[in-house]
Amino acid sequence: MARLLQSFRRILGITANSPAPSSFSRSIDTDFTIFREGDRAIIQGRVPYLTKPLQHGKRTDVARGYLNHSDIIGKRARDPIQAEKGKEHRLSFPTLDEYVVFTPRLVTPIYGADASLIVSLLDIHVVPPTEGQGDTETEPLEILEAGTGHGSLTLHLARAIQAANTNPPPIPQASQVRILEERPSYKAEDGKQQQEEKPISEKDDVFVAQKTWDEWRAQRRAVIHTVDVSAKFSAHAEQTVRGFRRGIYAGNIDFHVGAVENWIKDQVQRRSATASGIFSRRQNTVQPFLSYAILDMPSAHLRIPHVAPVLRRDGLLAVFMPSITQIGDCVQLIQKEQLPFVMERVVELGMGLSSGRLWDVRLAVKKSRADPNTWTTEGRSSEDDTEAQQTQTGKEETDSESAITPTPVEEDNVLVCRPKVGSRIVGGGFVGIWRRIEDSPKKRN
């Protein structure tokens, strides 16, 4: 009994002088210079290869031989490992980019260059928790990712907010497996349980681990809510996240299955029952709780009206689409529904011929039909203002039926999509960034 308790406490990182679970010291082994059981390694070579999780007694086939996992576990990264019936190989821990490229996928991932750029466009800033900081001092930073997919962007987002949270205890599933492996036998030879001492049941072990995990999750200062309509894709993405660097970022993420609009509705109902100030009963309105929202799904523009009410003022909305015309659909819907967003930029994450460009995507009318008194400044860039000033001062040709000017709010709208001259940004697809303002353009003075 004592041996079991000691083993369980060691797995959770608990000592006699350990603090309460909410202030755990580091319990996930973050020494990524030594390979441990369960790690995945990159076999270096002309064509790199990602191993399956390392396990004693297992092996990975290589050209002209195979590598025993037992020969890898305990070795330092890039130490030479002699293959059975083959040559020496050097192994390393996969970078996040390599991990995304070489892990099995059910859907096409957002590759490292694109995911890193999207995260940088969001301009996320977090600060480490201070000693003795109360859970209610500040509201946590919450990010919604609609469309989990492979889990690549999820991992990049989780890395961006890692500093905001304390070091997590082991996730319950991983703890349960390790406890069961180290549990001594409590069965007598006749198959009946011994009566001399009662062991802790597996149910109790899991309960303790889950309770510890839930206590830590409740005090997180930053969290990512990632939603996918496919339970299969969501489960695979969660497995992918937990498989990277011993699950160091897994605690920052909550996985959900279903339509994003249903998730938002459920969150509003849940938060309305709390006394945290998120729900105002007097006004019967929901106070926003998201700082960032990323939409990466088919027909993402149809979800923008659902996201708008729960996105905080000055929060950012990012829409990732394969086509520029789909970004145009977002522009048209925001204009039509008079949603409280202003466009900050549209970036082409193209490689090769596209070279990576900034795009000007907005609604406009022909000059011959435009009344300057009806022009709206929403979504206009400094280039637009310059064009308007040049037109008014006669510095630009006026005999241009096809020339484009800023958009009136009324009719005869034309969607304009044209590349801008900007910095080179590599990748694939298009990202539109909108900022949440206080109210819709039409309602502002």
* Tertiary shape: globular
Q: For the record, what CATH class of the domain at 99-186 and 198-348 applies?
A: Alpha Beta
Distance between the termini: 72 Å
Helix content: 25-40%
Query: Helix/strand-derived class?
Result: alpha+beta
CATH A-level architecture of the domain at 99-186 and 198-348: 3-Layer(aba) Sandwich
Count of β-strands: 18
What's the pLDDT, averaged over the residues?
74
H-E string: HEEEEHEEHHEHHHEHEHEEEHEHEEHEEE
The third-level CATH topology of the domain at 99-186 and 198-348 is Rossmann fold
DSSP helical segment count:
12
Reported for the largest beta sheet, the result is: 10 strands, mixed
Low-confidence parts:
1-26, 174-200, 275-284, 372-410, 421-427
CA-based gyration radius: 27 Å
CATH homologous superfamily classification of the domain at 99-186 and 198-348: Vaccinia Virus protein VP39
How does this model look, in words?
- This protein has 445 residues and is of the alpha+beta class.
- Among the domains are: 33-92, Vcp-like ATPase, Chain A, domain 2, CATH 3.10.330.20; 99-186 and 198-348, Vaccinia Virus protein VP39 (Rossmann fold).
- 28% of the residues lie in helices and 21% in strands.
- It has helices spanning 2-12, 69-72, 96-102, 112-122, 152-160, 172-182, 202-218, 231-242, 260-272, 304-307, 324-337, 382-392; strands at residues 42-43, 49-50, 59-62, 65-68, 80-82, 88-92, 141-146, 222-228, 253-257, 279-280, 285-286, 290-295, 311-321, 341-348, 358-366, 404-406, 414-419, 430-436.
- The strands form 4 sheets. Strands 7, 8, 9, 12, 13, 14, 15, 16, 17 and 18 form a 10-stranded mixed beta sheet that branches. Strands 2-1-6-5 form a 4-stranded antiparallel beta sheet, covered by helices on one side.
- Strand 8 (222-228), helix 8 and strand 9 (253-257) form a beta-alpha-beta unit.
- It is globular.
- Residues 1-26, 174-200, 275-284, 372-410 and 421-427 have low confidence and may be disordered.
